[in-house]
Amino acid sequence: MLHGIGACKETFLPTAADFCKDSINVVLMDNRAHGQSGGEYCTYGFHEKDDVSVLVTKLLERDPTNPIGLYGTSLGGAICYQVIGQDHRIRFAIIESTFDDLKNVVREYLARFIGFHFDSLADFALWRATQVAGFESGQVIPSHSAKNATCPVFCAHGTRDIHIPLNYGIHNYAQLQSKGNEFHLISNADHNNVSSTGGPLYRKMMLHFIRENSKD
User: Fold this and answer.
1) Does 139 reside within a domain?
2) What's the start-to-end Cα distance of the chain, in Å?
3) Which of 4, 12, 19, 199 has its C-alpha lying 20 to 30 A from 29's C-alpha?
4) Residue 4 domain-assigned?
């Protein structure tokens, strides 16, 4: 389970407990530069995707028969897309409320903060961040990664998400070439409450997706 920007693994504890009750093993991790993980800078998936793959390798060394899936929200969802675009050991992914291109979401965040679009300033700020943190923003494009995914993806996005517009989620989904994908539009959900707003039916659909894609 991969959390959003500025959060930590503990935000998933209630959800993880519910999964465990349904006999689904869960691994929680702090993204780099978050929680108890090392690292000074977040790179929005550029380096984090490789961190996740290292963890997957460790889990498969313990039990190579275990089907492994990813669950990511917001930034965590963007990381998920980047992982499944390169690591085809992943059996399925659940992705909520994420962006399609780092450049696009940085522009949107700045516009919301100052009240109007100032794309050249947003682009400069992003360029400066890449210089400081050591990554390439042009490679942090979840919609491009989605094209290379081979596993089924369960996507969800809230209709009232003002942080990451719904059209970003739709764009990501449209790029998927894998089979068995699902897109769930969650009415009245904002950026941070897709699962709780979706309620028991949403959870039931998610559990069905996990079980169907964990079969040998």
Assistant:
1) yes
2) 22
3) 199
4) no
Q: Could you list the residue range(s) of the whole structural domain that residue 68 is in?
A: 9-212
CA nearest neighbour of 45 among 173, 176, 141, 165: 141
CATH number of the domain bearing residue 36? 3.40.50.1820
* 28 is a domain residue: yes
Q: Domains in the chain: how many in total?
A: 1
Tokens 């707003």 correspond to what residue? 197
With respect to residue 3, please indicate whether it lies within any of the assigned structural domains.
no
